[in-house]
Specification:
CATH class of the largest domain: Mainly Beta
Number of helices: 1
Shape: elongated
Distance between the termini: 55 Å
Order of helices and strands: HEEEEEE
Structural class: alpha+beta
CATH architecture of the largest domain: Sandwich
Radius of gyration: 22 Å
Length: 135
């Protein structure tokens, strides 16, 4: 069944309206990062890394410990094994464990970044997914 011309016209108008909204949103984002416009620190408080631990077979989020500290299934900001914070660029060791799963050790590098007018952090935040194999 071919839609009536009115329906196609409505779809075209809806598409144009959505395109304009996208352009306005992108434009606002670019204006916010213009160095002449003060920013409220759009990246302030960003964590260098967030760790998500999942079941390797089905991808289900699981409770775990990372470097001996609890890690919520919804993700966590890991600590270093000595309890120190992971606070910037660098390479960090992670020891991930969960009851009923084989543990995993890995190193994660958080690369440096140049702060900008809108993003005042000096690292590129990392999202780390660690799949654990059930025993």
């Amino acid at each position: 069944m071919v839609p009536s011309p009115d329906v196609r016209a409505l779809d075209a108008n809806r598409w144009r309206r959505n395109a304009v909204l996208v352009l306005l949103t992108v434009g606002a984002g670019l204006a916010a990062c213009d160095s002449s416009v003060p920013c409220a620190g759009a990246c302030s408080g960003a964590a260098p890394m967030i760790v998500y631990v999942v079941d390797r077979d089905d991808g289900t989020a699981i409770a775990s410990t990372v470097n001996g500290f609890p890690c919520d299934p919804r993700g966590c900001r890991p600590r270093q094994a000595d309890g120190g914070t992971i606070s910037g660029a660098g390479t960090y060791a992670l020891d991930v464990e969960s009851d009923g799963y084989r543990s995993d050790q890995r190193e994660v590098t958080v690369p440096p970044a140049t702060p900008s007018a809108c993003c005042d952090i000096d690292f590129e935040p990392q999202r780390v997914v660690v799949p654990l194999l059930a025993l």
